[in-house]
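Exercise 4. Each item below gives a protein and its sequence. For each, produce the structure-token representation.

Item: Crooked neck-like protein 1 (Oncorhynchus mykiss).
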Amino acid sequence: MASTAAGKQRIPKVAKVKNKAPAEVQITAEQLLREAKERELELLPPPPKQKITDEEELNDYKLKKRKGFEDNIRKNRTVISNWIKYAQWEESLKEVQRARSIYERALDVDHRNIALWLKYAEMEMKNRQVNHARNIWDRAITILPRVNQFWYKYSYMEEMLGNIAGCRQVFERWTEWEPEEQAWHSYINFELRYKEVDKLLNSSALVIVHPDVKNWIKYARFEEKHGYIAHGRKVFERSVEFFGEEHVDEHLFVAFARFEEKQKEFERVRVIYKYALDRIPKQQAQELFKFYTVFEKKFGDRRGIEDVIVSKRRFQYEEEVKASPHNYDAWFDYLRLVESDADPDTAREVYERAIANIPPIQEKRHWRRYIYLWINYALYEELEVKDPERTRQVYLACLDLIPHKKFTFAKMWLLYGQFEIRQKNLQAARQGLGTAIGKCPKNKLFKGYIELELQLREFDRCRKLYEKYLEFASENCTTWIKFSELETILGDTERARAIFELAIGQPRLDMPEVLWKSYIDFEIEQEEYDNTRGLYKRLLQRTQHVKVWISYAQYELSIDTSDRLQRCRGIFEEANKGLRSCEEKEERLMLLESWKEFEQEFGSDTTRERVKKLLPEKVKKRRKLTAEDGSDAGWEEYYDYIFPEDAANQPNLKLLAMAKMWKSFHTSHPKNKTSPNNTFLT
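Answer:
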């Protein structure tokens, strides 16, 4: 039966989820936790109010509360908030003695807790226990003297009680610990509230403990505010001495200057500003410059304002030359400023500093700007200071410094020579220039020395110098020409002609065409026509240049003789024959054009027609170009000139001319396929 009953027992069916899709609204674990937290914050109904009706219930209530507080303290003695709550509860019951006992017990646990001391003292003050409060404050500032709050509260309590002497004593005890600046200011304000200014005068304890610029300025202004001007000035002077030159501050000098400005001591103000500007770096003196400029505009003259601007620019230049000593342009600007404003000693000092920066590389391009420092230095000593001896020393020092074996500066030698002449010391000038030519001969040196001797009318010396010059540079045609011109001016034409002969006989010349032209012009001026013709013939033996032929022809035309036209025409004919072998056909064309102009002006119809027949025909041709690497670069068109004289000697050119005639005939008679003279092609 039991088994039957067990068999008949039904097995519960497991519920099947019909819809396994996710729900439309999903609930996350975060939402569940947030909702639980929000429900915790829901306001619970307040506990029912307990009404105490007799003393026994009150004692029971007190005992219960005290037991709870003691239990909390016993659990964790270091939690000071439990002690404070306990003491405040006892205080609320007017059990001051018990509260005091609790605070003392708490102080035994943690005597360095600031909040504990403050609550303890406030309780005593609240209950008007003044002596107890003083005792607590004394204990607090003795144990924790660096807690400023205790001192502030203590001094405030004494002041509120009217115990001024006690408050002052608290401040004096406080200042012995050298507290922060605000403590000193509180003490000063306390004394000012009770008009005890005399106790503060001549008291420099604050600036000794906290020697900041702002404290010195406040100290001086305090003295000034109460009418002690001399004391205020003395404070500023002490502050300047205290900081010295290493720790100067522009704000201190600005305050000092404005103090003196209020006292109408304008000269003192000016001295203060200048003293400060001489000692403070430019970057740290912007405000100082600003106030100094404003002061000069208000109380100074034009010179004073200029001094301010000059001082500012001087600072700028000092910074520039310190940053880059070899920046000679900065030195030039600085020196220009110093020369215009400063005394000679200051200018010399700056010049000496500038020339001490010798270029590190001995290359002339690096010395070009540097050498002008010496030139300006010498000119300044000579023209501005008017010290010839020092000027001479500057020139000689510069000439000793230049490495003449590698390069030299002819300008420096010439300036030195001109200076010595201005000093009427001709011997020293010649000696200097002679040394220059001996050490480092240059064209400019020779020219300058010769020019100097010409001005002095020392012609024999000029001849010697020209000889030395030509030994140094025999290829210089200009020198030969100038030498010859000198002899011509002196009337010695034979020497001039000999010089020209020597010149054209030189194996190497830089401008031979100029030399020959000068020689020819010389002979023309001397009216030596045969010599001129001889020169032209000698020149044509050396060169067949077309301009020489044209010049020769024009020369013959310019001579007033009966056969000048025949001579000129003969030269043109000879030139035309000579230029036939010339590759430059443009030159030959130029000659024929010049001949044509001559014939149009002086010739007959026959001669004109003859020259016209000699003129070439302009033909366009093509030639193949080749690149630098040898590859084909295409074709280019160019114009060529075909002279009739050349065409007669070349049958190919004659054939080409006949082909052109045939083409032109067919162009004008397109219907005729053959020409009556078509046999000429065969």
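Check: The chain is about 70% helix and 5% strand.
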